[in-house]
Write a structure and sequence with these properties.
This protein has 133 residues and is α+β, with helices and mostly antiparallel strands. The chain has a single domain (2-124), classed as 2-Layer Sandwich (TATA-Binding Protein), CATH 3.30.310. The chain has helices spanning 27-39, 52-58, 113-124; strands at residues 2-6, 10-18, 44-51, 69-77, 92-98, 102-108. Strands 1-2-6-5-4-3 form a six-stranded antiparallel β-sheet. The protein is globular and about 45 Å long. Pfam families: DUF6858. This is DUF302 domain-containing protein. It comes from Roseicyclus elongatus DSM 19469. InterPro entries: DUF6858.
Length: 133
């Protein structure tokens, strides 16, 4: 998993997984695996699955030609709400894109380390196949 600054200001984690490195065949398969992890956490609530590709396609928006499917799983870690301004960085979202031969999974770093660590672990679990050299 790599951490980068997107547009020089957003701390983003992203992981590229070749399709032969995972038992998941589609974006929906990956979303289902992540939903199972969310369901297993008592303090985490799923909010929605947003089909970003369908939305952008519906009005003729610009989509990178390699992207074949793209969805966001939206959820929230409910550990605490220390002040009203924290609402600006919630809820969380993990994006999953299909680029033909590989998937790209990404999320914005959370202000709470426990959330970032959990999301990183969930994403890494998607690469569940050992590829022979």
């Amino acid at each position: 998993m790599k951490q980068t600054l997107l547009q020089q200001k957003y701390p983003v984690f992203h992981l590229e997984i070749a399709k032969e490195e995972t038992s998941c065949a589609t974006v929906d398969d990956i979303i289902a695996r992540l939903q199972a992890r969310i369901d297993a956490e008592p303090n985490v609530a799923e909010i929605a699955v947003f089909d970003h590709y369908a939305h952008t396609s519906s009005f003729g928006g610009d989509i990178h030609p390699e992207i074949l499917a793209a969805k966001n799983l939206v959820f929230c870690f409910g550990y605490k709400l220390p002040d009203p301004v924290m609402l600006s960085v919630r809820p969380r979202s993990i994006g999953v894109a299909d680029l033909g031969t590989r998937f790209v999974i990404s999320f914005l770093e959370a202000p709470m380390e426990i959330a970032t660590t959990a999301m990183e672990g969930w994403c890494k679990e998607i690469a569940d196949k050992v590829v022979a050299a």
